[in-house]
Amino acid sequence: MFTPYMELPVSNGTDADTMNAELNYGNNFGYYGLQANLSPALCERMLCNERAKELQEIQVGLEQLILEPGEFETWSNAIRERTTNPLFKIDALKITVEMIIQLAAFTSSSQTVQYNLAKLCSFLCSDLHTFQDDMIASFLCFHEEQRSNLNDQQRKNLLLFFAEIYEKLESKKSSKMQAFENALLEQIKEVLTADRLDDSKVKVVVEVLKLTGRYLDTDEGTSKINELLTQLNAIAKAHPAISDSVKEQILSLNTWRENKWDALNFLTNEEKAATEFQQYRRENDQGLTPSCSSSFIIGPDGQPLTEEERAFLEENFRKLDNNDTILDNDDVSDEYDEFLSAVANEEAKKRVAEMELAEIEKQMAKTNLDGRNGNLPTETGKNMAT
């Protein structure tokens, strides 16, 4: 079933209900529906396209990818199956790309949204010839033409998405990557010079630089990174609206740069697990508190580990320590990936529960349960005074 973002256009005398039925266009979707907020213009292009059915299915796949981040493989393969169909022409591919970037900019439930959508783009680039250049061109068009219409949160979402795309595709050289890099730097500067600078804006910039700094800080880009760090250090020293904790994050960027933007980022998952285990063993042998700080261990999404993720690693390290066994990198990596998927699914379930609760509260607000005396019924059927 599909989210009713707009009414289907009626053309050639076709009944709207008939068109709805043909496209399985229902009243809701998934977990009470994800309000993706795709633009009306894009929705109309989708519904008028000759591959409207496949585009609707891709929309559902993208929404499910957001609601169920742990099911990336399932939904990405379903989307790839439709986009690689020979009948799925360039105009339909462009609509797909526009869906992706609008979802990335307009959805703020979690940073995994931008990460997974960028991961999907990289996944599709490996199968679709010329898709990368066409995709980057669409992203740059959105950057130039739609960015000014975004609010602060949407600009932060877009910046994070561009950073994730750049990090995943930088090694896949193309004629448009330099222009994309310039757009990324332009967005960073805009966020830092925006009115009402606050913690959230600075934190996004810090995260983006940690993710992309090792690529941006080369050749001509070094001078641009120098300018950004100078500006950030000035903010850390004197800006009254920035908290001490965020100022510390700014200052930590200098250390990241000195360490070549953290060499641990270059390691594979297996190498990371082995490195972290050896670090834990050394410190444990010396009677020190293990320093598996979530600020310096980077997860597969390029972000610092959460406390739950760090606890998972430490628990497995302790098991190996107690059993005096040899670390199997593949097993640890597989278990860690399963753990991340479980955490992501749990977060999605929590967001769904919040959506359901909000909908229930909204409906209750519209209903006058006892307008005469203002009392609410209790579980035992008695009235409770409000």
UniProtKB/TrEMBL annotation:
- Provide a GO CC annotation, any one: cytoplasm
- Pfam families, alphabetized: MIF4G
- Give me the stretches of Polar residues compositional bias: 375-386
Q: Ranges for the MIF4G domain?
A: 112-259
Q: Where is this region: Disordered?
A: 364-386
List, in alphabetical order, the Gene Ontology terms for molecular function in this entry: RNA binding; translation activator activity
Give any single GO term for biological process.
Answer: regulation of translational initiation
Keyword presence, Cytoplasm: yes
Q: What keywords tag this UniProt record?
A: Cytoplasm, Translation regulation
Which compartment or compartments is the protein found in? Cytoplasm
Question: Where primarily located?
Answer: cytoplasm
Protein name per its UniProtKB record: MIF4G domain-containing protein
Q: What organism is listed for this UniProt entry?
A: Onchocerca volvulus
